Amino acid sequence: MSKKLFADMSNEELCAIISNLKTQLVEARFKMSSGELTKVNVFSQIRKSIARIFSELTNRGYSASLSTDSVILYDLKNTKNKPIIVSGKKIKEIIAKQQLEAKKKIAVAKPTKVETINQTKKISVMKEEHAKEVKK
Predict the structure, then answer these.
(1) Could you tell me which residues come within 8 angstroms of residue 12 by beta carbon, excluding any fewer than 6 positions away?
(2) What percent of the chain has pLDDT over 70?
(3) What's residue 48's pLDDT?
(4) 84, 11 in Cβ contact below 8 A?
(5) Which of 6, 16, 120, 129 is deepest in the core (most CB within 10 A)?
(6) How many CA atoms, within 13 angstroms, populate the side-chain half-sphere of residue 37?
(7) 72 phi and psi angles, rounded to 5 deg
(8) Residue 126 has pLDDT above 70, yes or no
């Protein structure tokens, strides 16, 4: 995940991603111990993504603390403000929303069978025309 992607997200979305990545890290550890996971670079990728999110939150003036079911944001600039608690329920809603948006993007990006057939027909027609020009 890139820094530019995180810059466009809200604090709650970043907290949801942190929580999701932490669960992925735990799941990867279990898979590694059971022998299902063979690529060790997954751990470093997840940890780097978490660090990027923490850096983005720090740049915004927040500090994050993780608990078992929520993420707590502390405002570093104004310590009189109460901490922002992003509950587990809110995190699940945000993750579900992000997954739905990702599915929509994938559905839009995939061409239909008719489009692929039409594209292959166009390519074959172009090849035939090119072959005719070469014969002349």
Answers:
(1) 86, 90, 94
(2) 76
(3) 93
(4) yes
(5) 16
(6) 16
(7) -115, 125
(8) no
- The set of residues, in sequence order, having a beta carbon less than 8 Å from that of 13 and lying 6+ positions away, is 94, 98
What local confidence, expressed as pLDDT, does residue 47 receive?
Answer: 93
Could you give the residue ranges of the DSSP H alpha helices within 2-112?
3-7, 11-34, 41-60, 88-109
Q: In what order do the strands lie in the sheet with 84-86?
A: 62-66, 71-75, 84-86
Cα-based angle 93, 18, 40 (whole degrees, multiple of 5) = 125
What are the tokens at 66?
């993780």
Q: Which residue has the tokens 């997200």?
A: 9
Judge whether 18 and 53 are in contact, CB under 8 Å: yes
What does the DSSP 8-state code read for residue 77?
A: S
